[in-house]
Specification:
Blueprint: H1 2-11, H2 21-41, H3 49-58, H4 60-74, H5 82-100, H6 103-127, H7 132-149, E1 156-157, H8 161-168, E2 170-171, E3 174-175, H9 176-194, H10 196-206, H11 208-213, H12 218-244, E4 246-247, H13 256-266, H14 278-297, H15 302-327
Antiparallel strand pairs: 1-4, 2-3
Helix pairs in contact: 1-10, 2-14, 3-14, 4-9, 4-12, 4-13, 4-14, 5-6, 5-7, 5-12, 6-7, 6-12, 8-12, 9-10, 13-14, 13-15
Length: 329
């Protein structure tokens, strides 16, 4: 166990600034360049407090998904089903709230649905055994179909001030949703940097054979990691439901999972596992958020926006692979 924990410490960040490294510095520079470009193109709008808050709100859901995706990728896996779980969890929340007349019961049901969906992914991957990409690609379609079946493809309205407060409420001038993202980021950072389980996840992704020999229960870890990913998707669904005040079966179908993967890879996650940080993923999220916001403000057509996002993912993978080749990994 000692060797594995040590490997985890070497992979995980040891200090906040000690592991910033070239990757995150490059991301900060890229973010600054994007801010400068769009700020110069739309100086009347971009730097206004309202627009900056809009950027924060826009990346809340993506940020939660990207941090969970980072943990999955670090463990050596990949979860393509998170967008569908977002939609499924909003529908379960809406149905449960409608049937029980209780928003807390609906929230609990929605979160539980995400947890169960993630655990199903883990069970299929571990006991199939099925490749993570294939397994979650299949469940992505299955969970989406289940969400549509719950109300014949129609949305379900939700009534309740307690849920609406999450969508429109503020604390110290910032929306509750942004505070939720900040709290989630702090929790993920502590989990990956300061806990034995977090360090073991790095070791698991870095060298599964050594992790197994060190006594780490790999199957239990893998199932738990995918369950966590599903739960995080349900939390993202909760945020979305609080804004739309409805269960939307098509929620998350607009490439959320690909944006989450893009943000994680931009942040330095290695698709082979064992490498990646929450701070890097959040920098990737901010880059995507600023890019999306800037393209909308400058009236870039939707098709070109999709092209830019796809190119960003390909570029991130190319840069990562070249860095990996130079380091001899």
């Amino acid at each position: 166990m000692t060797d594995t924990a040590t490997a985890g410490r070497e992979r995980a960040p040891t200090t906040l600034f000690g592991r910033i490294g070239a990757q995150n510095i490059s991301l900060l520079i890229a973010l600054a360049v994007l801010v400068a470009i769009f700020g110069a193109l739309r100086p009347d709008v971009f730097f206004t407090p309202r627009n900056l808050i809009n950027i924060g709100l826009a990346v809340t859901i993506l940020g939660i998904l990207a941090m969970a995706q980072t943990v999955v990728i670090v463990s050596g896996g990949l979860d393509i089903s998170v967008g569908s779980i977002v939609g499924l969890s909003t529908m379960v929340l809406a149905v449960a709230a409608q049937e029980t007349g209780s928003i807390p019961a609906g929230i609990l049901a929605g979160l539980l649905a995400g947890l169960v969906a993630g655990a199903i992914n883990g069970l299929i991957i571990v006991y199939g055994p099925v490749n993570a990409v294939i397994a979650t690609l299949g469940t992505m379609s299955a969970f989406r179909g289940l969400a549509y079946l719950m109300n014949n493809g129609n949305s379900i309205p939700i009534t309740g001030d307690s849920l609406r407060a999450l969508g429109i409420g503020t604390l110290f001038g910032l929306p509750f949703a942004i505070w939720l993202l900040i709290a989630a980021m702090a929790a993920f950072i502590v989990f990956t940097r300061e806990t034995v389980v977090g360090r073991n996840i790095y070791a698991l992704g870095g060298n599964p054979t050594v992790a197994r020999l060190a006594g780490i229960p790999i199957r239990r870890y893998q199932i738990s990691i995918y369950a966590m990913s599903g739960f995080a998707a349900a939390v993202a669904g909760l945020v979305l439901a609080s804004r739309t005040m409805s269960g939307q079966p098509a929620s998350g179908s607009q490439g959320l999972e690909l944006e989450a993967i893009t943000a994680a890879i931009l942040g330095g996650c290695a698709l082979q596992g064992g490498k990646g940080t929450i701070i890097g993923a959040m920098l990737g999220v901010l880059i995507i958020g600023v890019l999306n916001n800037g393209m909308i403000l400058t009236s870039v057509p939707t098709f070109y926006q999709l092209l830019a996002k796809g190119a960003l993912l390909i570029l991130a993978v190319i840069v990562q692979e070249r860095q990996r080749a130079r380091s001899g990994e």
